[in-house]
Amino acid sequence: MQKEGDEGVKFGEFMVQLKKGVPHVLLLAGEERYYIDRALEAVLAQLFPDGGQQDSLTKLTGDVDSDQLVGLLETVPFLIPKNVVIVEDTTLFRAAKKSTEKEEAEEAEIADSTKHGKGAKAKSSADKKLERLQKELLAMPDFSYAIFIMGEKPDKRKKLTKTVEKAGLVLEAEPVRAWNINDWLQGKLQSLNKDLDRDAYEYFLNAVSMMQQISLSYLDSEFDKIALFSKARRITKKELIEVFAGLPEVSVFALMDAISAKDAKKALVLLTRQLADGTYFTVLLVLLARHVRQLWQVRLLMADGVRGKALAKPLGLHPFIAEKLGRSAARFSDAQLRQSFLDIADADYMMKTGGGGNELLEHIVIELCA
Questions:
Q1: How far is it, in rounded angstroms, from Cα 56 to Cα 47?
Q2: 3-class DSSP state for residue 293?
Q3: What angle do CA 22, 28, 34 make, to 5 degrees?
Q4: Which end of the chain has less Cβ packing within 10 Å, N or C?
Q5: DSSP assignment of 15-82, as one string?
Q6: 191-203 in b/e burial notation, b at 16+ Cβ within 10 A?
Q7: Apex CA 210: angle with CA 204 and CA 211, to 5°?
Q8: What is the tens place of the pLDDT at every residue in 178-230?
């Protein structure tokens, strides 16, 4: 149980606290669905160690009437040990939308009428329903559990959110980015009783930094496959390459490394290989644009005195990768990167209008490595 006023806990801390026992009230909230799904699985596994929980689950979605929810929580289960109510995509903890001028005028009119005794009954009725739900959550029956799920951050200013923090446990499922992937990685490796050698770790960080969007579900399943077929405790770079080689945005990072090092010969060989392997022109162009943009952003940050590992957070990259990118950016000038951006835009237009082909990519690579 969290102390009153505490914020929600991250996934690792949530799982630790869950081992002490499942609270009767839970709020699983945030953008990272992977963590929410894993947390829900762990909760149900602990509530129903022998399985068979489906008969005890009541699932609701979206807007839920508070009194209906209270009634469900107070219902004594028949021939089953527990009464578990799951409210998916709940709006109970959502921040109120900013009012328009018209809505504000209407609210002012309601407030004025309330002062004169009009509309007070309707207003107090809604408040009383919410108060009944809050009291229920603070004094839950021993046989009932309420699990609220939402795909966004809850509004911590709401009384109901504070009630859940006081009565139970709140999971903050924040999306994982390249710069904070370590917590997930270490937890996953520990669960598999595996670790990465140095080259494999560096490769993994590079691979993740190239992903437009990190899918923990994908990474989770791929590491499970590696663990299934790898007998050694230590996962090698070769094994990771086999996993990620099929993703164009990952397999192409060797090309970006060659460009960063201004190694024109190696970069052109890798570009030719990518095209021969079937990587689309547009995919390569998008990744080139992203790399140039990152190098330019790094130069701007470094001009403001941001250097080394401090580059990680503003760029959304792992500190190791950000530091490496900082060293690479020093090899380029602002004018060169600006011109490359214009070349990329021209290549995009010419490709779409049939005015050029792979030679446009070669020109960009050569100019970047100049």
A1: 10
A2: helix
A3: 110
A4: C
A5: HHHHTT---SEEEEESS-HHHHHHHHHHHHHHH-TTS-GGGGEEEEESS--HHHHHHHHHSPPSSSS-
A6: ebebebeeebbeb
A7: 95
A8: 888 888 999 899 999 999 999 999 889 888 887 777 888 889 998 998 988 88
